[in-house]
Design brief:
The complex is a heterodimer of chains A (433) and B (157). Chain A is built from five helices and 23 strands. By secondary structure, chain A is mainly β. The mean pLDDT of chain B is 83. Chain B is mainly α. Chain B has two domains: 59 residues, no CATH class; 59 residues, no CATH class. Chain B has nine helices and no strands. Chain B is globular, with a radius of gyration of 20 Å. The chains are: A mainly beta (433), B mainly alpha (157). Chains A and B meet through strand 3, strand 4, strand 5, strand 6 and strand 7 of A and helix 1, helix 3, helix 5, helix 7 and helix 8 of B.
Chain lengths: 433, 157
């Protein structure tokens, strides 16, 4: 964990502030803590800069903390992060970060009013925002018909470019809503990377109730730097008896969608220069034939201003046990085809999970799947990929501790024989202070 | 040279004050912070309308039915109803896929959970050459910033 904090030092002040507040004596009173630890050990072989078929054995530690029920009603603290340590001498991870603080924020939700605030590292997903920030986010209802959220801080995703000096992000969303009949949102975001504009986006989103419990959803984004529409995404959801349908339409202008100024990286920077436009339309459908069997199908057509068109069709069937457990088995087949043969491939997947072994066996659950892809044109001299995994697990101490062992084997264009083993231990602990 | 941002922070504080003041005066429908534990929904992905009305004046429960393709298509409902997702999922659940700075893809971190339609299962390194050509917008949604595109630039430069 020490290495994580060293690498994220610019956010240390925010994190430390949260911790200080958390552990101040007045707040500790009657606090309840939930801790979840996930330890994963992977073992596999890779060619590295120094050696061929070198054994790599990283161990990952994920740690999650939730604290609430402080003496201040509505206050809580949440943190989640991971770190990695390579157990052998491999230099496989030499150019990669060895950990990340995913979030660490103090949250206040007003008990008697629709208002909440978060301070610290957090993920913002609202309107055009789809970003991790170190900062402050506020959300509330202005009246029966209006709500708003605003945020400001530093974008985590830009910290790798010239440090965090000159980095900033802020934005918000204003929404008008009439009960459950409709909602129209207007959102804005601007971000700076090292003092240069990385994004300047305006978004409009819409949801509306239609007859027969159908719903319309829409979302459009305008790139204010390139002054063009980056994306339109619209869909209708409706249900007829045990059938569900989702027809949809999407449009992307590569210049406006991928051009992200000082934010741009390859391969997206090159895609923006292509000037391509992509339109897709199609439908997803599913049918709950019974409590046990569900069938699904998807069709999606891709058309372009310059490139050759493609179509995707997929079918899925799944069987569930009628109990409340997760036992499930299924099969999926998908086929991508189009005018360009190098985009054609067939995908098959079979999977199963069984957690009703009961007292007959020492194990609590077993799992497995097979994924097979057949390419119309060889990729790196091979026409197929096959991947298979097997796993098993057992819980202890009233489900507080879960041990899992799994392995996967694959043959594909990148690996002739690829065997990996994963051992994980998950431990959850709740206690009061 | 960095642009002056003092006026922006002033506006942010002003908006914050208005937001907090108005919220205190408003009473509107909010979903509960947590789904009732004794509801008996079990571990399976829920079909909300099995217990709830499809829709009423206050909320549309049908949109959260975890049907076959819900994992593929939840973006539109999630961006407006984060609090509804939070009734059952902690943020860390979402961060298996949506985060900046992940190393293990979700299908590997949760390898035994084969019942989840997690993205990139199996040999996605090969398949992404085609999926990326056909619809690169789906890559960009998660890998768009320099930190999240770290796994892309190793090959794409």
């Amino acid at each position: 964990m020490a290495r994580i904090l060293t690498r994220t030092s610019p956010s240390l002040s925010v994190f430390a502030c949260c911790l200080f507040l958390l552990f101040s004596p007045s707040m500790l009173f009657a606090a309840e803590l939930q801790i979840q630890s996930d330890t994963l050990l992977r073992v596999f072989e890779r060619d590295t800069t120094g050696t061929g078929d070198e054994l790599v054995a990283p161990i990952y530690q994920y740690l999650k903390l939730n604290a609430d029920n402080f003496s201040v009603e509505g206050l809580s603290f949440h943190a989640y992060g991971w770190g990695r340590q390579e157990l052998l001498d491999s230099d496989f991870f030499r150019e990669q970060s060895s950990g990340e603080l995913i979030y660490a924020y103090l949250e206040y939700t007003a008990p008697d009013a629709p208002f909440s605030a978060r301070l610290g590292r957090q993920y913002i997903f609202s309107g055009v925002a789809n970003d991790s920030i170190d900062g402050l986010w506020l959300k509330g209802t202005l009246s029966e018909y209006f709500s708003a959220s605003v945020y400001a801080g530093q974008p985590v995703g830009l910290s790798t470019t010239a440090g965090r000096s000159g980095d900033s992000i802020y934005g918000g969303r204003l929404a008008h809503k009439n009960k459950n009949f409709y909602e129209i949102g207007l959102s804005y975001q601007t971000s700076q990377n090292d003092g240069d504009t990385a994004a300047n986006l305006l978004g409009i989103d819409l949801s509306a109730g239609l007859p027969m419990n159908a719903s319309l959803y829409g979302y459009s984004t305008r790139n204010l730097e390139t002054e063009g529409w980056a994306e339109h995404s619209y869909e209708v959801n409706f249900q007829l008896d045990r059938f569900s349908f989702r027809p949809f339409y999407e449009y992307y202008s590569y210049l406006d969608y991928f051009d992200s100024g000082a934010n741009a990286t390859n391969p997206f920077k090159l895609l923006a220069l292509s000037g391509e436009d992509l339109s897709t339309f199609g439908v997803d459908a599913s049918w709950r034939q019974s409590e046990s069997f569900t069938f699904g199908g998807k069709f999606k057509a891709y058309s372009y201003d310059q490139n050759q068109a493609s179509n995707l069709i997929s079918l899925i069937v799944s069987w569930n046990s009628e109990s409340v457990e997760l036992t499930q088995a299924g099969a999926e087949i998908g086929y991508m085809s189009g005018d360009a043969a190098n985009n054609d491939y067939l995908l098959l997947r079979l999977y199963g999970f069984y957690d009703e072994l009961g007292d007959r066996y020492w194990l609590d659950f077993i799992s497995g799947d097979v994924v097979y892809a057949l390419y119309d044109r060889d990729i790196l001299g091979r026409s197929y990929s096959v991947f298979t995994s097997l796993g098993a697990g057992k819980t202890f101490f009233n489900d507080q501790l879960t041990l899992r062992l799994s392995g996967d084997y694959s043959q594909d264009p990148y690996f002739d024989d690829n065997l990996q083993v994963l051992l994980s231990a998950s431990f959850a602990y709740d206690f009061s202070l | 040279m960095p642009k002056p941002i003092k006026i922006q922070y002033f506006l942010f504080l002003l908006l914050t004050s208005v937001l907090a003041a108005c919220a205190v005066q408003t009473q509107s429908y909010r979903v509960p912070a947590q789904h009732p534990e004794d509801s008996g929904i079990g571990k399976r992905p829920p079909i909300c309308v099995d217990c709830h009305e499809a829709s009423d004046d206050q909320f549309n429960w049908q949109q959260f039915n975890h049907t076959t393709y819900f994992a593929d298509n939840h973006r539109q409902v999630a961006l407006r109803n984060e609090q509804a997702c939070a009734m059952c999922h902690q943020t860390s659940f979402c961060n298996d896929c949506h985060a900046t700075g992940l190393e293990l893809k979700p299908s590997l971190k949760n390898q035994t959970e084969t019942y989840r339609r997690t993205p990139h299962r199996g040999d996605y390194l090969s398949r992404h050459r085609i999926d990326g050509r056909v619809d690169p917008s789906s890559c960009f949604r998660c890998h768009r910033n320099p930190k999240a595109s770290g796994s892309c630039v190793r090959c794409h430069g």
